[in-house]
User: What shape does this take?
Amino acid sequence: MDEDWKIQILELPGQCAMAVHIWRRSLSGNIESMTKDGLLVVYEGQGPSEPLLKLLPEQLQAFADALNKKGYKPEKGLLEGKLERTDNHLKDMRALLKLKD
Assistant: This one.
């Protein structure tokens, strides 16, 4: 069984919002889900019905942008994103000081 945390983002029917679920399946087969209170809830059978967050599309985009600014790049991972950001900063500094790469 997989104990890695998963993040699932679903469109809420009839609403202009997205539901964000953070969960994992335990070794016992139960679903463990993060709640709005930050508590871990264990569900037997199906899974959680209440999302951790409900966000409008523009809020979800702002959240993704904030993660990106901190160096979290989904396609690359945190460390590679930070290295890329540092490299870009150094290139900018070289350009300001008129140094060669």
User: Anything to note?
Assistant: The beta strands are 6-11, 18-25, 31-34, 40-43, 53-55. The helical segments are 57-69, 78-96. Residues 70-101 form one domain. The longest helix spans residues 78-96.
